[in-house]
Design a protein that fits this description.
The protein is built from two helices and no strands. With about 50 residues, the chain is mainly α.
């Protein structure tokens, strides 16, 4: 079972990757889509391991 520390490290890595991707992308719409996808991934990971 994944620990809280591992969950937070994975979330931090996703945020860092999202930041790097958003720096490369100029379109606001694409930034919104990427952010929504990352939030969905974090929520899905939370429910998969903590329900």
């Amino acid at each position: 079972m994944i620990t809280n520390f591992e969950y937070y490290v994975a979330g931090l890595l996703l945020l860092i990757i999202a930041f790097l991707v958003m720096k490369k992308v100029a379109s606001c719409l694409v930034k919104i889509v990427v952010t929504i996808i990352l939030v969905v991934i974090l929520v899905a990971a939370y429910y998969m391991y903590y329900r």
